[in-house]
# Entry
Amino acid sequence: MSSLQAHRKAIIGIGVEMVFQSGGSRFQALKKVNLEIFKGDIQLLMGPSGSGKTTLLSILAGILTPTAGSVHLLGEEITRMSRNQLARFRLANIGFIFQGFNLFPALTAAENVEVALHLKGIRGRMARQQAQVLLEQVGLADKAKNLPRDLSGGQKQRVAIARALAGNPQLIMADEPTAALDSHSGHAVIELLRQLAKEGGCTVLMVTHDSRIMDVADRVLHLEDGRLKA
Ligand SMILES: Nc1ncnc2c1ncn2[C@@H]1O[C@H](COP(=O)(O)OP(=O)(O)O)[C@@H](O)[C@H]1O
Ligand SMILES: [Mg+2]
# Structure
């Protein structure tokens, strides 16, 4: 691979395999997965339930270590990093949006975003200002003081996105970000992720069953029984 090509790739997976072992049973969730995702793309990962989407996304985000193969993010091989190096790399470069919303129920929308900023070393007044800017970016400036229970599903998901955007990560990874949303909020979330990729230069990798998202995707990967389909 020439270095010019390597620079255009945000995410590379080579021969990625995942075997889960529990008790006496062994289950191969991913089989020799090879993929390349370009910078600035919106890349979808689709496939039936149980096909390995969450497992693959978790491996590409460095949350789960594959049993074989390598993962390169932004030109660095994360599968060779120490635990500490990987934790630092993830904090600096990856915003992850989970399948639930994973918000702290006792914290306001703004405080939920501030916690993520604190983890990145941004504190005090600076964190409060940046949280406000991030909530504005997702259209929730007027809900900053609301607790999660006083937000709709779509609004909670937008708080989760604001939190994932804290510190301007280059990679955004999302596991079924619209699954719990009605069609209107789903559209708002999709449009937001599209803007991030197209105007913010982020690379967005998204697991979804949502066929509406196909309209904004640059490319789609299909997973079936742990294998990528052409
Ligand atoms: N920690 C685990 N231990 C054992 N099996 C697992 C574990 N995580 C996932 N699996 C299995 O791996 C397969 C893929 O799971 P998952 O990646 O969650 O699929 P998807 O997100 O496409 O629905 C499923 O059969 C699931 O039961
Ligand atoms: Mg899943």
